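Sample entry follows:

:::
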Amino acid sequence: MLQALVDFIVAHAAWSGALVALVAFVEGLALVGTFMPGSTILIAVGAASSHSMEILVPLIVCAAVGAIAGDTLSYRWGLTRGQHFLSQPSLVRHAAWVERTTRLVRWRGEIGVLVGRLCPPMRSIMPLVAGMSGLHLGRFVVADIVASTLWSAAHLGGGAYAIHLMHFSH
């Protein structure tokens, strides 16, 4: 199924930016991102798009925009309904990661947002925790723009680079 989704995204170049943004948006949603293989999809799309930087750079921008939108919505949920989310069974089972993420955001603020976005166990709860912690929206958004851009470039660019290395090793 994953391969079919990647093939669909690559085959529909006119829609690929929107589809990649949607994948990154869903990946950024609190709890939902835990079950969405967004990172895997972006790496595969990057690998499939490795033949052209003209395609890859806009995809990185689209993925970053989608991730920022998903993270910002999750931040808003943290402000308004954070405790409700934390009481969900999937987060109760991972209380240690919730606690680590909370300590990181409270201790380091926007640096915590950056680390949380780039660290898979924290990624799906970091925006929620940032909202619950009262991190100022402006500080959150600035840090999330940087983090989401790095995350998108690492996944899409990493997939493309892996294919590039495979072609030169033969």
